[in-house]
Each structure stands twice: as C-alpha cells, then as structure tokens.
Design a protein that fits this description.
By secondary structure, the protein is an alpha+beta fold. It has helices spanning about 10-20, 70-80; strands at about 25, 30-40, 45-55, 60-65. A four-stranded antiparallel sheet has the order 1-2-3-4.
Length: about 90
C-alpha cells in the first residue's frame, strides 16, 4: 500500500489507498498515523508504523518502519494465471 503513495495526493486519495488512519490528532490535523499489526501463521507478531504528513490537504511526506517492495514484488501482485475456460 505504501508503494502507491505519491506526493500531491489528497487526503481522500490517501484514505482510498491506505484506509482510515488509526490516529487523527485534533491538534495536528495534517498528520495521520497508521499502525499495521500482523502475525503470520501463528508466528511472531510483527508491527509496522507509517506517519503521513499533509500541507494544504496534499501529501508532502511519509515516514515509518516499512520496507518498499521491489519491482518484482509489484509484478507478482498484478499477475494472473492463464484462463482455463473451455469453448464448447
């Protein structure tokens, strides 16, 4: 999801990509915080945090403890298996 963020995106576009932020501080309305928690297969629980900053309703920066995916990771997300439809 973080790979889809681009400078200049509006708050509505960020919500479409990232979902509703976990924390919206009323004193810092241009900062949104997201926390993702995951536990694959009952293993060790992991957590990632992303902070997104806006100026005039437009994304200007984001930081956190995430690792951007590589091009091959993105390609794997959009590949689909060949169709198995038969023609009768």
């Amino acid at each position: 999801m973080v790979d889809q963020l681009r400078p200049g995106m509006t708050k509505r576009q960020v919500i479409f990509v990232m979902g509703t932020p976990l924390v919206r501080d009323p004193f810092h309305q241009d900062r949104w915080d997201y926390i993702y928690s995951f536990q694959p297969g009952g293993g060790i629980r992991g957590q990632e945090r992303v902070t997104i900053n806006f100026v005039d309703d437009q994304l200007v920066s984001f930081t956190g403890d995430f690792v951007p995916s590589t091009a091959s990771d993105n390609q794997a997300l959009i590949e689909t298996p060949p169709s198995q439809d038969s023609v009768n």
